[in-house]
Amino acid sequence: MSETREVIIIGSGPAGYTAAIYLGRAGLKPLVVAGALTPGGQLVNTTEVENFPGFPDGIMGPELMENMQRQAERFGAELVYDDVESAELDGETKTVHCSGGDTYTARTVIVTTGSYYRHLDVPGEEEFGGHGVSYCATCDGFFFRGKPVVVVGGGDSALEEANFLANLAESVTLLVRRDEFRASKIMVDRTLANPKITVLMNTVADRINGDKQGVTSVSVRNTATDGEEKLEAKGVFVAVGQVPQTAFLGGQVALDERGYIQVEGASTRTSLPGVFAAGDCADPVYQQAISAAGTGCRAALDVQMYLDELEA
Questions:
Q1: Domain endpoint, select from 174, 209, 238
Q2: What is the predicted pLDDT for the residue at 148?
Q3: One domain for residues 193 and 152
Q4: Which residue segment(s) compose the domain that 192 sits in?
Q5: Which of 238, 265, 298 lies at the terminal end of a domain, its last residue?
Q6: Which of 113, 119, 200, 224 can bridge 245 by disulfide, Cβ–Cβ 3.0-4.6 Å?
Q7: DSSP string, 101-138
Q8: Contact, 152 vs 281, CB < 8 A?
Q9: Same domain, 146 and 108
Q10: Are residues 14 and 90 located together in one domain of the fold?
Q11: Are 23 and 164 in a shared domain?
Q12: DSSP string, 10-44
């Protein structure tokens, strides 16, 4: 147990590091529990990032996160490479327990633990991750301009990805596991009316195939007939949902039905005083690095206002 700090940031990535930069510049010396295995969040596993402002030629995801980390440390942030197992967040002093055995206390906590994409868990998915397999059409669709792609999923997010990609790709094949969509009627109508999108119902991806250049095809199976075929594809976009990393909170703050942290309006305040949330763990809609960074800034400013009110 160390001294009680002003603020602990649980998680890293664009939201956590941005919050740390702002809080460090404010002289609050934030402690960032950045994660044991993947500090920097999902961008650490991303290749080139072309849509983050300020990098006209793009930047590699790991490099962007390393730059943010160094900037946070420059202004006095302290990083701990560990995972938070549990926390007691009610009351004036918040306590955070890490898997390595250390315990930290603070007057405020910002949760920036993000979310992770659900995977198909089929052969080739991991092998071709970042080389044809993507979980974000907005991030990576540009690389597949004029090429055939496959989208997997039957919800609103999958259909949104398919329609977005239809503006870029040569063709889009949408694989829907069941005999009906989970998406809203307006999204289904829009998708079925798009001449560049082919919908295969009762169809799952069994294998993603490729070579040294990346993905070349997808082996699919019809669950009703057991018929198999191979679809040509240069890109596979997996859109079967995301899981916010909020289980460690133990239900102490209000979550929505999918497990995302609920915040008050445009702020980052949660249902517990002194606890704030930023980034993908509190954002079921946008899930972008730049929007996560923006909420990290908001969280830092919200923390400063909260601490000022305590001293008033």
A1: 238
A2: 98
A3: yes
A4: 119-238
A5: 238
A6: 113
A7: S-EEEEEEEEE---EEEPP---TTTTTTBTTTEES-HH
A8: no
A9: no
A10: yes
A11: no
A12: E--HHHHHHHHHHHHHTT---EEE--SS-TTGGGG
- The arithmetic mean of pLDDT across residues 69-90, rounded, is 96
The CATH number for 180's domain is: 3.50.50.60
Do 178 and 151 sit in the same domain of this protein? yes
199-214: average pLDDT:
97
Strands 84-88 and 94-98: antiparallel
**Residues 143/169, Cβ–Cβ less than 8 Å:** no
> In angstroms, rounded to a whole number, what is the distance separating the alpha carbons of residues 129 and 113?
22
pLDDT tier at 45, thresholds 50, 70, 90: low
Token pair for residue 289? 């690095």
Q: Which residues are the active-site residues? A: 136, 139-140
Q: Indicate the number of domains in the chain.
A: 2
Residue 249 identity: L
User: Do residues 284 and 190 share a domain?
Assistant: no
Q: Do 222 and 307 belong to one domain?
A: no
**Are 230 and 287 contained in the same domain?**
no
pLDDT of residue 1: 56
| pLDDT for 80 | 96
pLDDT > 70 fraction of the chain, expressed in percent and rounded: 99
- Condensed to tens digits (0 to 9), the pLDDT of residues 158-184 reads 999 999 999 999 999 999 999 999 999
